[in-house]
Amino acid sequence: MSPRALITGGAGFIGSHVADLFLAEGYEVEIIDDLSTGNRENPPKGAVFHEVNVTSPEAGKIIAEGSFDVVVHLAAQIDVRKSVADPVFDANTNIIGTLNILEALRRAGSKGRIVFTSTGGAIYGDFNTPPNVETFPKDPESPYAISKLAAEYYLSYYGRVHGVEHVALRFGNVYGPRQDPHGEAGVVAIFCSRILDRKPLTIFGDGLQTRDYVYVGDVARAVFLAATSSIPPVERVDARAFNVGTGVGTSVVDLAELLQKAAKSDAEVVFAPKRPGEQQESFLNVEKAKKVLGWQPRVSLSEGLANTFAWTADQLAARHA
Ligand SMILES: NC(=O)c1ccc[n+]([C@@H]2O[C@H](COP(=O)([O-])OP(=O)(O)OC[C@H]3O[C@@H](n4cnc5c(N)ncnc54)[C@H](O)[C@@H]3O)[C@@H](O)[C@H]2O)c1
């Protein structure tokens, strides 16, 4: 019998790549997604799709009755600015949604493992000097980052008290094909669209702020390894948390230049006032994922940017065909 994986948020950017990979690895795949930001076209054909909200009793029932070996939980409110404007909505999706899944696993006495997708870009805050290590103090600067960290504490609690198998992955800035250029997370997706629309690239502030850009194919592989590798014993909250990035901070100015090169573009770069609350430096130490999961990024930034630009250009061409 094939192993079974349930992927919440599988109609989204990262989730659809994760679903592709689990199918390719021989898993039966089911997806829960309410399509609030996801795309109906994204889930792979071989997956069973449930259009369901992750906070609902129906989602709990699917998980409790599904005998899944792995639950990858990606469904979330991902927009930092929206979390500031409406922290109750953010907490409901990101905390209550996660609790709903954990309770379903507990009720079912599941032996399956939940892989939770957290943020390495936002939970460490501004008081540490990057590269951020998993055990660094956390000072989340937004309701989004607070809700992700709170969910990690629930995971850790369910592990210790109820024996729920879990891993938390703390992603850097994930980019690649299928990222929504209208979303808030994707500067690469936004820049690709603007180059193709022959519009200038806008950089907020001096453009020297750094981020850890990691390719979505590498991220999907980290999820798969986190789901299938042997993991450290349940302990403090950081014991089963892994940063997933490249270990390199890239400034927005350098990112724009690399993308221009990959796209053979000479789009104008314009500067706009710095956005309040934006972190200056953020990148991750990824030694733990290397050591424990045997994971490391394989796709260089220039290769990943070229892939992403080519995919965005193909999408545009298909729309105009
Ligand atoms: N993209 C990044 O750089 C990044 C960085 C750190 C962490 N993450 C995390 O990775 C996960 C996936 O992010 P993404 O970039 O693929 O975003 P995305 O918006 O493309 O995917 C999220 C998916 O979840 C679905 N969803 C949202 N609320 C839901 C709900 N209540 N019930 C059911 N489905 C719901 C959406 O429709 C969407 O398909 C998120 O948990 C996000 O916080 C992403």
Walk me through what this model shows.
The model has no long low-confidence stretch (mean pLDDT 96). The strands form 4 sheets. The protein has a 7-stranded parallel sheet, with helices on both faces. A two-stranded parallel sheet has the order 7-10. The chain has helices at residues 13-24, 57-65, 80-85, 87-107, 143-162, 187-196, 216-228, 252-263, 287-293, 301-320; strands spanning 4-8, 28-32, 48-50, 70-73, 113-119, 165-171, 173-175, 201-204, 210-211, 213-215, 241-244, 250-251, 269-272. It is an alpha/beta fold and 321 residues long. Helix 1 (13-24) crosses helix 7 and helix 6 (187-196) crosses helix 8 (252-263). The protein contains 10 helices and 13 strands. Helix 5 (143-162) links the parallel strand 5 (113-119) and strand 6. The chain has 2 domains: 4-174 and 213-244, 3-Layer(aba) Sandwich (Rossmann fold); 177-212 and 247-320, UDP-galactose 4-epimerase, domain 1 (Alpha-Beta Complex). The chain binds nicotinamide-adenine-dinucleotide. Nicotinamide-adenine-dinucleotide binds at residues 9, 11-15, 32-38, 53-55, 74-78, 93, 97, 117, 119, 121, 171, 173-174, 180, 185.
Relevant terms:
321 residues, alpha/beta, Rossmann fold, UDP-galactose 4-epimerase, domain 1, 2 domains, seven-stranded parallel β-sheet, binds nicotinamide-adenine-dinucleotide
